[in-house]
Write a structure and sequence with these properties.
Blueprint (H helix, E strand, L loop, with lengths): L3 H14 L9 H40 L6 H4 L9 H7 L2 H9 L4 H4 L1 H12 L2 H6 L7 H16 L3 H10 L3 H18 L17 H16 L1 H11 L10 H16 L5 H15 L4 H18 L12
């Protein structure tokens, strides 16, 4: 689920908030980093459980409308296409998923059901729903396409849901694009015979990614004074107070990758930190960071001190 860029962002945020020095213990910050990464999975489960609540809401909605005192013939014999949506039922009946939700205590919608109501009303009022409900017959392919559409067009861009998630956990806003992308990828590719584990993807693609997060965090902090000197040597014409604090953190992390991670190509490192700078720092930060790293890499190449192994390093 997680990609390396998002891991870098989480490490950046943790280092930026760190106020100690190389000699200080940063066990607390490392635990915070790992908790912050793990909490992305809680966001994933929360949004997946929202789809389950929509299916439950549709059942409740049909039950109430069919029991109205002056219910119409159509209301007494409603179209149950949404209630019987195979993908939504697949999620609802997934025992492993339910166990994970209970274990992580993901029960937000029990207390905050008004947000489920908001999403459900938007679905009922949408052209997507009107088109989907034109017939009473369906297929797994059509059910899947409908769930993909309501997630991408109604749930993901919903402002009230966005505000709710921001109130619950500020860091979730940074995580939301990654989680939404992961959910859409799973929904688009799900098959009728998918195993129960399908909707319980691993947070890390492999153990190397988790180790990378820890090592990048530790090695950057353990060498921060050394990296500060490297930055100072390349910014002699700059007023240090004018260099954004976040730019300094990003430069330290980038230098750490260039020096301490032989298997990561230099181009990958530079491109990743430039993109992060564009998103999180000042308008000119990416230009500044690119200039410093470009000078540094050329110096390492000239002195044959670029510690890289494997192909495609530049």
């Amino acid at each position: 689920m997680l990609n390396r860029r998002h891991i870098r962002i989480k490490v950046m945020q943790t280092i930026y908030s760190f106020k100690g020095g190389e000699s200080d213990s940063f066990d607390k910050e490392q635990k915070f980093l790992l908790h912050s990464l793990d909490n992305i999975y809680n966001l994933y489960l929360l949004l997946i459980s929202l789809l389950i609540e929509i299916q439950k809401k549709s059942e409740d909605y049909l039950d109430k409308t069919s029991k109205k005192h002056l219910a119409t013939k159509e209301e007494k014999n409603p179209n149950k296409k949404l209630v019987n949506n195979e993908v939504l039922l697949m999620l609802k009946n997934n025992v492993l998923l339910q166990d994970e939700l209970e274990q992580r205590k993901i029960s937000n919608w029990d207390l905050d059901s008004e947000y489920v109501d908001v999403i459900f009303r938007e679905i009922l009022a949408s052209d997507l729903y009107a088109q989907y409900m034109q017939t009473k017959t369906t297929s797994f392919k059509e059910d899947r396409a409908f769930v993909v559409d309501i997630f991408s067009d109604i749930i993901a861009p919903n402002d009230k849901l966005y505000d709710y998630l921001e109130d619950k956990n500020l860091t979730w806003i940074d995580d939301l694009p990654v989680v939404n992308t992961a959910i859409l990828k799973l929904l688009r590719k799900v098959k009728q015979d998918a195993l129960a584990t399908y909707f319980l993807p691993k947070l890390y693609k492999d153990l190397d990614d988790k180790a990378y997060a820890i090592e990048l965090f530790k090695k950057t902090l353990l060498n921060q004074s050394k990296f500060s000197e490297v930055i100072k040597g390349k910014t002699q014409n700059w007023d240090s107070e004018r260099i954004a604090s976040l730019d300094t953190v990003l430069l330290k992390m980038a230098i750490c990758e260039i020096q301490k991670f032989p298997s990561i190509p230099v181009k990958v490192t530079i491109n990743e930190y430039l993109e992060i700078a564009k998103e999180y720092s000042t308008p000119k930060s990416s230009i500044f960071i690119n200039g410093i790293l470009d000078k540094l890499v050329k110096e390492y190449q000239e002195t044959d001190t670029l510690n890289k192994t494997g192909r495609g390093l530049m």
